[in-house]
Design a protein that fits this description.
Strand order of the largest sheet: 6-7-8-3-9-10
Protein name: ABC transporter ATP-binding protein
GO molecular function, one term: ABC-type transporter activity
Bound molecules: adenosine-5'-triphosphate
Organism: Candidatus Desulfacyla euxinica
CATH class of the largest domain: Alpha Beta
Number of strands: 20
Strand content: 25-35%
CATH architecture of the largest domain: 3-Layer(aba) Sandwich
Distance between the termini: 31 Å
Keywords: ATP-binding, Cell membrane, Membrane, Nucleotide-binding, Translocase, Transport
Structural class: alpha+beta
Number of domains: 2
Order of helices and strands: EEEHEEEHHHEHEHEEHHEEEEEEEEEE
Radius of gyration: 24 Å
Shape: elongated
Largest sheet: 6 strands, mixed
Amino acid sequence: MAEIVIEDLKKQFGDFVAVTNSSLTIRNGDFFVLLGPSGCGKTTTLRMIAGLEFPTHGKIFLDTEDITFLRASQRNIAFVFQMFALYPHMNVEKNIGFPLKTQGTGRSEIRKRVREVGKLLHLDNLLKSKVSALSGGDKQRVALGRAIIRRPKAFLMDEPLGSLDAEFRESMSFELKKMHNDIDATTVYVTHDQNEAMAMGDRIGIMDKGVMLQADDPLTIYNKPRAKFVGSFIGSPAMNFIDVNAFVQKGSTSVKINGSNLTIPECHEDSNIDFNYLGIRPENIKIVNKGDIRGKVYGVEYLGANKIITVDTEFGRIKVRAPSVINAKFGDNVGLEFDSNSIIIFNGDDETAIKSQFIN
Ligand code: ATP
């Protein structure tokens, strides 16, 4: 188990900046998920932690050791690839034990540790099987076994479940998390799947365009996004955003919208600019008869326990998650009531949340 600290990391490929301004602490024992759209710099960040790429700028520490420019083989970190390369001519036991063999560990010690790992990953009955005869999930377990057996300080995983079908992916993700807990590991896990990230992560780091926008526990990420991108990337449907053409002043507890005052959480700082966004999750809006924001129902999606009602307003299309008993149909004229405590104000200039909203 180890702590990984990243300080002001930057990686440039020629003129192209793949990762920039990234600082982050991955705590001892964290299952830390790096999440973001394709090309945002997740793999590049992971490869720098692994020692497969060296940063253009910044530092990486494993516990207190500066490992920034150590080669991968000099770091006590295991990398589990999506396209795991197992040795097809060797059986499961030999594949798992291979890293210890290359380290020169004695045969009886290798056998003992392979048995331990096999038990942990439910591969005990398959130790003598050829890997070519295994299912995708079992192959994935063998790949994990090969990473675990070295007892590294941390595990790095790049979309390890990416090649599995949806059902199997879900069960493997539970197993992976359980294994992480069982061996008390520190894990950095890359995915572009928000559901996987929310289900597995103790903490999630969200990246966009090479920048780490927020690193927090899943609940905080969901309820208190610090950037507009985070609110839009997490949640289905995404957070609603409404342009507020108003200067949000220090001490403000409301903004004028549609000629009426809409209550907002108290601001402790000026927004500096006079165009801002207001962000609100669909479940924090109620359909009401009256209401300052009005619109016409554009669509209703039934989800069983609740429904998503899409309302066209003069501020754009707003999605509301309502109990299924709420009656609303296409074309109905409805009012919307916002839960003011759940509103986040985003600075329209750089699309980050106004910081004072996060002071408890
Ligand atoms: P994905 O989920 O698609 O793998 P990612 O978030 O992991 O995306 P990276 O693989 O880190 O993204 O890539 C970030 C950007 O850096 C991409 O635009 C990619 O094309 C670019 N990039 C990565 N490696 C190199 C390289 N060796 N040379 C040039 N550009 C690179």
